[in-house]
Amino acid sequence: MTNEDEIRNKEDIKAFCSRKGAPIPKPITQFNHINFPHFIQNQFKEMNFKEPTAIQKQAWPIVMSGNDMIGLAETGSGKTLAFLLPGLMHVLAQKELKKGDGPIMVILTPTRELAIQIHGACENFCNAFVPDSKDRALKIACLYGGEVRKTQIKECRSKPQVIIATPGRLLDFLQAGITNMKRCSYLVLDEADRMLDMGFNPQISQITSQVTPDRQTLFFSATWNRSVQSMAMSYVSKAEPHFIVNIGSIETSANHRVKQSFLFIQESDKIARLTDLLDKLIKNPEDCRTLVFCKTKKRTDVVTERLREAGWPSLSIHGERKQEEREWVLEEFRSGKTPILVATDVAARGLDVENVKYVINYDMPHEIDSYIHRIGRTGRAGKEGNSVSFFTPEDVQLCTPLIKVLEEAEQDVPDKLVKLRDLSTKSHGDLSIKEQRQKDKIEMLTEKKKRK
């Protein structure tokens, strides 16, 4: 076994190339093994980073060689710097922007929260860069809906080399002639599976149609179903080989550091069980950030109100909140001033809050991918995390995929979950309980008509 194979095995890295027999760049193990300039290396020390994460170890050698790449990794894996830092190196290697030029690097994200977080990470390194002239300074524009256009238009007209944006707002600016994609040669689709879920693929197609075909494209996703695979293949280069880097299981998988547990209850018991659970889990509210996920905007507000009535300091976040309010709520949660955040899935993707100790699924999501991304808010950056899910009879469609996720993560599968799965199908067919009841009802009505 070669040294690079040992590294990949240790980090659970799987790397593939679309061109059979093409060599895969060797993974690195230390920051100084990659040719980053001093301002980036110094920033690693400033931020107290010890060594690259698994995705960074394999992605940096591939991306720095100019290759297209598809990255599959769990949330909190360090993928932002995996695409961001090679992107900054790419920007610095290009000619300076002239009047009327658009950005060199474009990063598309599904939500404004994720756009803001990537912007913050980018600023950390751009501010550390000492330019050789005023024009050479690294400038960033962050574009997303729910914010005054005037400020963002001003950012675009300051000749930013980097634009981080949600697809809708960027397309809006492109169509209005505020910016363009003529100079874009480094394109990143982050949380691409979420953008697909949210229906952004048509906008992304319109945006990428304006980018040079010989661009470098990076595609990041936490899941790899057929729809995501089809989307990825439509954007990476067809003329040149591309690489796929997968960290952990290539199947739908959860963060292995999150201890998953379930409470099998009735819908009417949820709020009482939630307050009881918080009493047991949270001994020191200042060091126990907890995310509670609900399925609707109305429900988040109702649950937040009930928690406050029970004496728990809580805030809610969902799509109807104004941007200023959402940012304030997130800051209250990040700082620990308000230890409980009740949220819809708007907070499930890309939300980067350190030291979230518990994720509680007050309502189970409709799809297993959303479940994985929700519980991925805890157990980040190598730390242990915990999730507790309220499971009702209405959630039986999730039994089979949940069992697969638990088995893949090498965690105990509750007997109740197995029994519910077995009950959800009948020996004479694969109908769900709900479908079988409907069928039985139709058969009963038919039989009654025959008797008449």
UniProtKB/TrEMBL annotation:
EC number: 3.6.4.13
Motif (Q motif): 29-57
Keyword Nucleotide-binding (UniProt): yes
Transmembrane segments: none
Protein name per its UniProtKB record: Probable eukaryotic initiation factor 4A
PANTHER family: ATP-DEPENDENT RNA HELICASE DBP3
Segments forming domain Helicase C-terminal: 273-421
Annotated coiled-coil segments of the chain: none
The keyword Protein biosynthesis appears for this protein: yes
Source organism per UniProt: Naegleria gruberi
Role noted for this protein: ATP-dependent RNA helicase which is a subunit of the eIF4F complex involved in cap recognition and is required for mRNA binding to ribosome. In the current model of translation initiation, eIF4A unwinds RNA secondary structures in the 5'-UTR of mRNAs which is necessary to allow efficient binding of the small ribosomal subunit, and subsequent scanning for the initiator codon.
Segments of this protein annotated with the region Disordered: 428-452
CDD domains reported for this sequence: SF2_C_DEAD (cd18787)
GO molecular-function terms, A-Z: ATP binding; hydrolase activity; nucleic acid binding; RNA helicase activity; translation initiation factor activity
Every Helicase ATP-binding domain range: 60-242
Pfam family of the protein (one): DEAD
InterPro entries: DEAD/DEAH_box_helicase_dom, Helicase_ATP-bd, Helicase_C-like, P-loop_NTPase, RNA-helicase_DEAD-box_CS, RNA_helicase_DEAD_Q_motif
Domain DEAD-box RNA helicase Q: 29-57
EC supergroup of this enzyme: hydrolase
Quaternary structure, from the entry: eIF4F is a multi-subunit complex, the composition of which varies with external and internal environmental conditions. It is composed of at least EIF4A, EIF4E and EIF4G.
Family to which this protein belongs: Belongs to the DEAD box helicase family. eIF4A subfamily.
Keywords from the UniProt entry: ATP-binding, Helicase, Hydrolase, Initiation factor, Nucleotide-binding, Protein biosynthesis
